[in-house]
Specification:
By secondary structure, this protein is an all-alpha fold. The chain is 67% helix and 0% strand. Helix 1 crosses helix 4, helix 5 packs antiparallel against helix 6 and helix 7 packs across helix 9.
Length: 284
Amino acid sequence: MNELAGLPAVPGLWCIIAAIFGLCIGSFLNVVIHRLPKMLEQGWADQCAELRGEEPGVRETYNLVTPRSACPHCKHLIGSLENIPVVSYLFQRGKCKHCGAPISARYPVVEIAATALAVAAAWHFGPTYQSIAIAVLLWVLLALSVIDIDTTLLPDNLTLPLLWAGLAVNSFGLLVPLQDALWGAIAGYLTLWLVYWAFKLLTKKEGMGYGDFKLLAALGAWLGWQMLPVIILLSSVVGAVIGIAMIVMRGRDRNIPIPFGPYLAGAGVLAVFFGKSLMTMYLG
């Protein structure tokens, strides 16, 4: 039984609960998106200093909790009433309450996206453990997509735990049988690994990063190997269309890498909700 005990099977109520959690998680995802790349850069700098035989520089503690969030312009610490997801942004008209500097619209956009994904999972799967697991998957995909857009990185700190979480979830047969999840992870990684090396041997260039291999492996671990053809097809087609459009319309340099993670993540989201229908259409 996947149903959550003690909760009425009322889709509307479950969606309201999911929306509240989605707003809160969306606010936290903004912190992850902003701070995790900086934390990685600090770690890499310390490792380089250690390899050079130098002592790492002393710096203030910087992680997902410390220091408190502050305005990047005036360093005003953000209070509780200024940190209410979406509401605070609208109430302050997108500006810092202290200095009036503009606040990026991406913060409420991420919060709204996290909420929409949670509500979609709640509506589609109902009050079940499946909907909770899928919501977690979608939230991590959202964070990875934005980080990849910003930095062209897919941090192991997110992709590897996501992969292991998929195997753990499916060890209970929550989404797919464990055997399908295991081979999904293996096939997902090897598929893009083979594409990577084939492209490199033919062009002497790297066509994608290792983070893409791990992300597709994670999607395979969550959704099973059967969904991989649909995910690869959707992500490749959309990525090619958008990439060509950016080159033609915006004059983007072809040598500037285009992050592939958001396309994989978007294809994974579609596979969650429409995978069986798309697979039927794709395989006839």
